[in-house]
Amino acid sequence: MEILITNDDGIYSEGIYALATSLRKMGNITVVAPDTQRSAVGHAITIADPLRVVTANRNGKFFGYAASGTPADCVKLGIKSIMKKRPDLVVSGINLGGNQGYNILYSGTVSGATEGALLGIPSLAISLDTFTKPDFSAAAAFSVKLAGMVKKRRLPPGTLLNVNLPNLPAARIKGVRVTNQSRTSFNDWFDKRRDPHGNTYYWMTGDFKPKDADRASDLNALRGGYVSVTPIQFDLTDYKFVPELENWELKL
What we know:
This protein is of the alpha/beta class.
């Protein structure tokens, strides 16, 4: 089994190292990831600048390829230029911080997996719902189990799995729930500041106040101590609204 691994936290993050170490049990892995932090870049790709790639070592050994682009760039580059064989699976993560609700639209982690799905390859996005004292062990182990399931069962074309895990030891996680995307979003605002030269700049900040009455959502699964697995698609068409829009009798 050929596996391509990427992330948005950068190739030197602990999450991607834990993921790669575990997925070696499944087959041959190739790591192509951003050379530095690329969180919240969404599905951006680089078209106005060249992509520069260098090899990256971890613990004195070759680990993978560090690219100057986004997670989506890394997946394209890995599949089309670096890997000798087309991958059977793309896995993006393990992200530091959850990717649920509307956050998946901004997530570089999810976009790395989405690019894999766009290219017709079964893909997973794996995130750990914390920014402090992460324990990647349960997420890494579950990634191996899920990769095995995907190999056996396959995924529908155009569908990827967005996986979020609570930051708990495996023994304390209550189970796995198949969920839908929550409608909760980050509540953000901008701090207006001045630099030492008197120039104005803005720094985005905010907080996350989870409010979701849908018991089947990814957010509520995580809050309840469960792993959330959400099948998502990149077709954004609102099919329910199409008939009504046709009744508008739009004309030039």
